[in-house]
């Protein structure tokens, strides 16, 4: 677990944090559906997040869980299902489990994407292929869980911003030293001016998840945080707009 000393912050940020719509507008809509993404974008979001899973056929689908049970009621891992099987699944609002390609096709370059690549064999190669196909390198901040993935992606897409999800002190220090990491993402419980300053001194940026109250977002802004994940896009945008005035 990453342990830090929480410090009070009074300095106003020179710039507002960028908001990532966590699984879309997931407080009000089923996560990772077009309804959720459409709502987030309509409310003003410029960045929508996707969690990635790989089918047995090697296709990237979007799901936070590695299995379909919670969202569709089917208790089976995506990795054990063919594209044909996954395409038959439906969420409670009657949407399919979307592929990353279908999301790229729907929104193209009108929005930015924050996909999370899992440490699952084949995900990086499939991701690189799709980004090239749609020409979206400059519209993606990609999340990774290991430095090998970051290096693979940077070798192909040098301009793409890579965000590393750090869950403990060791991972944090590794990310701080890595030349392949642009953004370090931490749990909101680790928010402090000292930690953010340390990250900025390494010419990296910092993100926090998941901030779902005005109080949490205000703290992030006062701490000079660069990015925030939120389930409530409308509240997040309204709070940022209010506090920056």
Tell me what you see in this structure.
- The chain has 245 residues and is of the alpha/beta class.
- It has a single domain, classed as Phosphatidylinositol (PI) phosphodiesterase (TIM Barrel).
- Helices cover 36% and strands 18% of the residues.
- The chain contains ten helices and nine strands.
- It has helices at 34-42, 69-72, 83-87, 100-107, 123-134, 147-156, 169-177, 193-201, 214-222, 233-244; strands spanning 18-21, 47-54, 60-62, 112-116, 141-144, 161-165, 183-187, 205-209, 227-230.
- A six-stranded parallel beta sheet has the order 1-9-8-7-6-5, covered by helices on one side. Strands 3-2-4 form a three-stranded mixed beta sheet.
- Helix 8 (193-201) links the parallel strand 7 and strand 8 (205-209).
- It is globular, with a radius of gyration of 18 Å.
- Residues 3-8 have low confidence and may be disordered.
